[in-house]
Structure formats: C-alpha cells, structure tokens
Amino acid sequence: MHKNKIWLSSPHMGGNEQKYIRDAFKENWIAPLGPNVTGFEEDIKRFLNSKANEESEVAALSSGTAALHLALVILGVKSGDEVICQSMTFAASANPIKYVGATPVFVDSEEDTLNICPVQLEIAIKDRIEKGNKPKAIIAVHLYGMPYKVEEVHQVAKKYGIPVVEDSAESLGSTYNGLNCGTFGELAVLSFNGNKIITTSGGGALVAKDLRHKEKAVFLATQARDAAPHYQHSHIGYNYRLSNICAGIGRGQMEVLDDRVSARREMNQFYLNLFADITGVNVQTEPDERYFSNHWLSVIQVDEKETEGISREYLREELEKENIECRPLWKPMHMQPVFKDAPYYGTGVAERAFENGLCMPSGSNLSEEDKRRIENAIKACFNK
Ligand SMILES: *Cc1c(COP(=O)(O)O)cnc(C)c1O
Q: Which Pfam families does the annotation name (predicted)?
C-alpha cells in the first residue's frame, strides 16, 4: 500500500499569503522592494519588540545565509580574522565566515540545550587570545528552536568584549526569560526558508540593535549604491534584498506565527507522551522555566545500551520504510571534511549527540492520521 510521505518539516500556509501577493501584482511591485517588504519588516519588528529589553530594527533579505554574511561584513570581520561558531549547527552558520576570508573556530555544545557550551567558549577565547588572535565575533545558535544558555554565553562575550551574532534561523517565537530569541545579540539572523517555522519560500532577515546597522545592511544588500544620479560605488555590494512577492508570503505567515509555535510545541508533547514509557529514548525539552522553545524540530536521543540494541539508525531506517522522514542531528562542523583544518574546542558532547540524536517529523500541519502512523511505527520498533 502506498503511503503519503510524512515530512520532517514542510511549508504550512495560513491563507492570507495570496492576498498580499495579489496586491503586489495589482500595483506591479514585482521587485526586491515595495510595500510588502516594508510591511514584513514592520511585522517582524513589532513581533520581536513586543518581548525585548531593547528595540530592534529589521532588514528583510534574500536568505538567512545572506543575513549572516552581512552581519560579519558589518562587524568588520576580514581576511585573517577568527570567528567563533557553535560546532553543532547547520553549515550555513559557518560558511559566511569563509565568505569574508576569516577562519572559523568551532566550540562544542553542552548537554542541556545542545547549544554552545559557555565553559568551552571561554577556554577557546582565552586560547585564541594567547595565540595572538582575539576572535572578532561569536556565532551562537538556538538549535531546533531551543534557546542557548543566554545569560552564561553573553556574560562570557561581554567579559572579553566580543560581539555575539545570534543565529535565530530556527528559533523565531522562542523566548528566554520571557524575551524573544533574536533580540539578544548585537546582530541576529532569521531565516524563512521552506522548512522553517514560517516561510517566504526563501528569505531571511538581519535584526539589529543599531539603526545604522540596519541601514548599512540594506545599503550593502542593494549593490552599495552611493547617493548619485548615476551608479556610483565606493563599497563592494551584494544583491541580497528580499523580493516583494516573497515578502507578501511572509506577511501572511506572520499572521499565523503564534499558531505555528503552538502546533510545533504540541508535536513535542506528542513525542514526550509517545516515549514516556520507552526506556532509553529521551525527548529533548526545556531544561527549566526560563527556556521556551518553539520546538521547530523535536529531537530524541537514543541510548542503545538502555534500549537493548535499538539504535538511532535502526529507528531512522524503520521509519523510512514507512515513508516517514527523520534525520540525524546536524553533523558538527568540526567533523565536516570542508572544515577539517579549523580549530575546535570541546569534550565530545556534540559528537555524541550527533551519534545518538534523531530529528522527528515536527511540522505544524501533521494530521491526526500522520501522528497515528508515527506512533504505530515507533511502537512496532519497540514491540509495544
Ligand atoms: C536555515 C538555517 C540558516 C540559513 O538560512 P537560509 O535562509 O536557509 O539561508 C542558518 N543557520 C541555521 C541554524 C539554519 O537552520
């Protein structure tokens, strides 16, 4: 019997997206600027600033990767510089370090959130300073929506005067101490790629504390054109602005963001219930009440000794046979062939999480029938 594929995370439209796109067509704003771009920026800004200690400004861009690239350019990171980056993350967190000619220095995760370990972070900073190259920035990631140890990480960053670029690509709608992820770093990055909690099909944003940083991002993202009637350039520019069509999708999606967060959190609860009486499988959840995850993806860790031989890979393969998509956690960057020469500081936490961890289908649009299929497939693996 053919069964429909259950995806890890698939786009989930709210309904009003097409209205904003129709407006764009009606007014012929088929360009990387227009009322939807401005409106989308305002929507994100309002959302972020509703729970924040400081006001942020938002520049809508063509991708989260572009936003990370511009963040490093704006911070003045150059060839020969070093940038610290959480090792366990998606490659897009680290690649922009190479775009600007700098060297990534990778840091391990801690067990509670699987994000950058503040202890290893400080060890890395001290050692790089001793070696004569103080890192220019720290890229910290709220992986799978789980906030990193905000207080500890920013304390270390502050102590050494190093700016934090907050990679919030996976964590729109997550909070720490009641404050929105995306509002903690000097600069922060959002992604609206097709698999994220809300999507513009492709897109991203740079979030800045300083209005001048936002203006610089827009300037650089639109080919760095100086104020002149002809095309005049005194900086290298990029074509990184978000299209007015995609921004229209984003405006519709912002209307349903809270619902999407609730639905993903319900998926996490579904897995907590499902695995409650299965020994050896741990569902990742918030370490304490300061953390509120959007649970973009629900993550399980499989302890093969406790499950008596049922491994992460066995589970993944069995689910795949049922046409249910699961994926191992991000392979740490220090284990990637392309970054094999980069310095790394850690004790193996990320490596173990990669070995044992599995991302489960977490979409906000999974039906009750989808959930039953997942439940039955898991129970079959454990003879329940
Ligand atoms: C998706 C993602 C990005 C990149 O965003 P794009 O919009 O796909 O370029 C960066 N960092 C993390 C952690 C991501 O998950």
A: DegT_DnrJ_EryC1 (PF01041)
User: How many angstroms is it from 93 CA to the middle of ligand 1?
Assistant: 7
CB 75 within 8 A of CB 136: yes
Segment 185-193 shows an average pLDDT of 98
Supply the mean pLDDT for the chain: 97
Asked whether residue 299 carries a pLDDT value surpassing 60, the answer given is: yes
Tens of pLDDT, residue by residue over 317-347, are 999 999 999 999 999 999 999 999 999 999 9
Question: What pLDDT score was predicted for residue 2?
Answer: 63
Neighbouring residues of 234: CB distance < 8 A, sequence distance ≥ 6: 224, 226
Checking if the pLDDT of 1 tops 60, the result is: no
Kindly report each contact of residues 211-219 with a partner whose C-beta sits within 8 Å and lies 24 or more positions away, as own/partner: 211/57, 213/57, 213/74, 213/186, 213/187, 214/57, 214/58, 214/59, 216/74, 217/59, 217/61, 217/67, 217/70, 217/74, 218/59
Of 252, 259, 254, 300, whose CA–CA distance to 276 is shortest? Answer: 300
Q: What's the gap between Cα 244 and its chain centre?
A: 23
Q: Determine the atom of ligand 1 nearest the C-alpha atom of 203.
A: 7
Q: Which residue has the CA at smallest separation from atom 5 of ligand 1?
A: 64
**Residue 327: Cβ-neighbour burial (10 angstroms; 0-12, 13-18, 19+):** middle
Whose tokens are 């080919």? That residue is 223
Kindly tell me the number of DSSP H helices and DSSP E strands found in the chain.
Answer: 12, 15
Q: Could you give the CA distance from residue 1 to residue 10 in angstroms, rounded to a whole number? A: 23
Protein residues whose CB sits closer than 6 Å to any atom of ligand 1: 63-65, 89-90, 92-93, 141, 167, 169-170, 191, 193, 204
3-class DSSP assignment, residue 79: coil
- Among 9, 86, 93, 330, the mutation site with the greatest number of ligand 1 atoms within 8 A of its Cβ is 93
Element (H, E) at 176: strand 175-176
pTM of the model: 0.97
